Amino acid sequence: MRPCTIEPVTSLEERASLFDAVLSPSFGPEELPPRDRFLAWTSGDDLEVLLATDAETGETLGCAVVALGQGTDVMALLAWLAVRPGERGSGTGGALLDAAIDAARAGGAHLLLAEVEDPRKHAASADHGNPWRRLGFYARHGLVILDVPYFQPAIAPGQERVRDMLLLAAVLRDGADSPTVLRPALVTFLEAYVPRLDGTDPEHDALLAAAAEVTAEPLADALERAGH
Ligand SMILES: CC(C)(COP(=O)(O)OP(=O)(O)OC[C@H]1O[C@@H](n2cnc3c(N)ncnc32)[C@H](O)[C@@H]1OP(=O)(O)O)[C@@H](O)C(=O)NCCC(=O)NCCS
């Protein structure tokens, strides 16, 4: 474990710096908006930006961005989580995920959603990571997997949807993953989140229909069943 300090950041300079140093090298072009759009979004009250720095040197290690109040107070979204390439595997990502969960819970959310690549459909890359190992990371942190045909909406004009994604959730309150709580909350979230970024169409309708019937399973169990 590498000792790190995690703090919310608000200044334009810090947000621009973590976009360049952490997010830009860690995500593909469809998974990140243009820099100016990221800076505009993260200046609002509904996004919390958490920066991890080395506890001794102050060097930037990673960041997490949590979106609150996405259509419903019950749902928060882990918009981005990344540790700089070369700094991974020392516990920083785990500490950032814990801090993101704390921030979502403090904001009143019952579930924190995370959009991840389906490792059966997305290849590994040195900078963007290995989708199977990423799932192992989330499984060890106790997340559940939601059985919906998920796609990440296009996050800026001119960008594409990212298909073949999985939707995970950290359960922040007892019972929040039960069908009676989860289904209406997920439908409300998707009705607000996808059209706001990306409009509606039959693919979105199919996602909403699946959300109305969704069930949650511990990700660790699903991975074991898949032999991982
Ligand atoms: C996922 C990520 C945030 C984890 O951060 P980290 O500091 O390496 O995490 P920790 O040290 O707390 O935990 C180590 C675990 O992280 C995961 N991990 C580490 N390096 C990874 C990589 N290159 N790709 C995928 N997962 C990785 C593994 O599960 C690892 O455990 P393992 O060594 O037993 O396989 C980091 O790998 C990363 O930034 N990846 C690229 C961006 C990304 O995938 N973000 C998540 C988007 S949903």
TrEMBL record:
N-acetyltransferase domain: residues covered: 4-155
InterPro entries: Acyl_CoA_acyltransferase (IPR016181), GNAT_dom (IPR000182)
Keywords: Transferase
Pfam families listed in its UniProt record: Acetyltransf_1
This protein's record includes keyword Ribonucleoprotein: no
Top-rank taxon, per record: Bacteria
GO molecular function annotations of the record: acyltransferase activity, transferring groups other than amino-acyl groups
Gene3D superfamilies referenced in this protein's UniProt entry, alphabetically: 3.40.630.30
PROSITE patterns from the UniProt entry: GNAT
Protein known as: Acetyltransferase (GNAT) family protein
Source species of the chain: Flavimobilis soli
